[in-house]
Design goal:
245 residues; alpha/beta; six-stranded mixed beta sheet; 8 helices; disordered C terminus; phosphoadenylyl-sulfate reductase (thioredoxin) activity; metal-binding
């Protein structure tokens, strides 16, 4: 499809999703046809979406980016989630040659030294595996919420992703964290124990810390950088990411 067609379809879908509950949103998207992929980081938001997919047996592929530097708690949760919902979470890993090339240029933990090096690490461990996960997909589902950060305050339910030429759906865009927690408690959803230790947003272990009282949810991600809008690039268009560097 052309970009113009996808932009129009995303606009229409955005309006339709706004009137539905989460189960309705996911069912609608699953029934549109084509390959639908949900990428999960195993955070509390993503666990809610996975629970709905599993409980309703929706034809949505579930994938995760196994960066090679995730917390042990996150890795254990992948197995627990698969077992509880009788689903398969496909792991997409970075290529060893890319990791070796990064280490040769920046050092294994060179991401602490510069924004350029950090973006390069995210590129190797997250963006390239994501490209493989979404290859051939028509719809990409994410757990983005407006309340996660100021950078995500205008997150729509559906939008055109020009980098990947597909429609990106954010079914939890209007959910707040209290609603998320209530769903988890009411439905026995397994969650990462790090959430109870002050980690509302969990990524790679070297790049994530617990947040301090009063800090925004994503303050613990790449905490050594000064840019309040810091992202890994998964949800930032190429031109925006270039400015951030």
């Amino acid at each position: 499809m052309t970009a113009i067609t996808l932009i129009e379809e995303a606009g229409t879908l955005n309006s339709r999703l706004a009137a539905l509950d989460l189960a309705g949103r996911l069912s609608l998207v699953a029934g549109l046809g084509g390959r639908v992929v949900f990428t999960t980081s195993l955070g509390i938001e993503d666990q809610v979406i996975t629970a709905e997919i599993g409980n309703h047996r929706l034809p949505i592929e579930v994938a995760t980016l196994q960066t090679g530097r995730l917390f042990p708690e996150t890795l254990a949760l992948i197995d627990e989630t698969e077992s509880q919902y009788d689903i398969r979470i496909v792991r997409y890993e970075p290529e060893q040659a890319d990791i070796d090339a990064y280490a040769a240029k920046y050092g294994l933990n060179g991401f602490y030294e510069s924004v350029e090096a950090r973006h390069a690490c995210c590129g190797v461990r997250k963006l390239k595996p994501l490209a493989r996960a979404l290859s051939g997909a028509t719809i990409w589902i994410t757990g983005l919420r407006r309340g996660q950060s100021a950078n995500r305050a205008d997150t729509p339910f559906a939008e055109y992703d020009p980098e990947r030429n597909l429609i990106k759906v954010n079914p939890l865009a209007d959910w707040d964290i209290d609603t998320i927690r209530a769903y988890v408690a009411d439905n026995g959803v397994p969650v990462n124990p790090l959430h109870q230790r002050g980690y509302p947003s969990i990524g790679c272990e070297p790049c994530t810390r617990a947040i301090k009282p009063g800090e925004p949810e994503r303050a613990g991600r790449w905490w050594w950088e000064n840019d309040e809008k810091r992202e890994c690039g998964l949800h930032v268009h190429e031109e925006t990411a270039a400015v951030a560097q």
